[in-house]
């Protein structure tokens, strides 16, 4: 006799971005997941209860993510979908977005990001195109990725409008209270990627907390993000790990644990 695994307890926390779109704090990342693996992993994430999917033009998996979403039976308006435009496509931003929408089988995305900074006037020029795309209803919210505070100010000054969110590498090893404060002073939400990379899962301070609270190191790291109100997008191709990473609503970290995790990077 086989038993179905218990359903994960997913957090339902969202963050309201400037402009009004609500982004789930927990999402499913798809970087480096391609082909049939991308379909299977995205399907597993949706089945586990994730309602936020993160992809990008350069990931080469928008079609697979779109197929998984289309075949999932989950209503479109229940899933927050992010994709990204590389600065190499500056001047052709809308063509890139229309291609992304075609591959994703969508008429709009919930969040569209400049994937990384370009040189010279590229960022400001792209940002103007992004504002037009949002005004045309092709993206509910627009933001950037891998920008620093100076670049955030640059695009804001060019258009009078700040990015809704900045997606950056983030984990306890990379925590920087100044960076968080800089974003919040500008009304820019922070979204972290690569949370489970760089040795975080093996760090003794993190594993000690995980052992004490009876959770995996990954669950502790994801929970840390949620309690900081930083969006987190863990990725995996393993269905059980995908479920486990989402099972973070049933516990919380105390102030001492949060402070200890903040101090892991020594900043």
TrEMBL record:
Superkingdom assignment: Bacteria
PROSITE patterns: ALDOKETO_REDUCTASE_1 (PS00798), ALDOKETO_REDUCTASE_2 (PS00062), ALDOKETO_REDUCTASE_3 (PS00063)
Keywords associated with the record: NADP, Oxidoreductase
Domain NADP-dependent oxidoreductase: 26-264
Listed Pfam families: Aldo_ket_red
Family designation: Belongs to the aldo/keto reductase family.
PANTHER family according to UniProt: 2,5-DIKETO-D-GLUCONIC ACID REDUCTASE, NADP-DEPENDENT OXIDOREDUCTASE DOMAIN-CONTAINING PROTEIN
Name of the protein described by the UniProt record: Aldo/keto reductase
Organism of origin: Nocardioides pinisoli
């Amino acid at each position: 006799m086989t038993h179905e695994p218990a359903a994960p307890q997913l957090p339902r926390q969202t963050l309201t971005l400037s402009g009004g779109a609500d982004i789930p704090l927990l999402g499913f990342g798809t970087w480096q997941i391609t082909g049939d693996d991308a379909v299977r992993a995205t399907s597993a994430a949706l089945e586990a209860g994730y309602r936020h999917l993160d992809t990008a033009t350069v990931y080469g998996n928008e079609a697979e993510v779109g197929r998984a979403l289309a075949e999932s039976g989950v209503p479109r308006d229940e899933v927050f979908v992010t994709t990204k435009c590389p600065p190499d496509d500056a001047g052709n931003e809308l063509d890139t977005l229309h291609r992304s929408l075609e591959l994703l089988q969508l008429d709009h995305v919930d969040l569209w990001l400049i994937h990384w900074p370009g040189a010279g006037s590229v960022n400001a020029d792209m940002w103007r195109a992004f504002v037009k795309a949002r005004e045309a209803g092709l993206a509910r919210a627009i933001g950037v990725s891998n920008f620093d505070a100076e670049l955030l100010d640059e695009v804001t000054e060019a258009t009078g409008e700040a990015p809704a969110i900045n997606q950056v590498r983030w984990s306890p090893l990379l925590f920087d209270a100044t960076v968080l404060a800089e974003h919040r002073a500008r009304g820019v939400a922070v979204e972290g990627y690569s949370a489970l990379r760089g040795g975080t899962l093996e760090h003794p301070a993190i594993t000690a907390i995980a052992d004490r609270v009876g959770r995996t190191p990954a669950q502790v790291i994801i929970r840390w993000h949620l309690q900081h109100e930083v969006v987190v997008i863990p990725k995996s191709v393993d269905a059980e790990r995908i479920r486990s990473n989402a099972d973070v609503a049933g516990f919380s970290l105390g102030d001492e644990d949060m402070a200890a995790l903040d101090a892991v990077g020594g900043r």
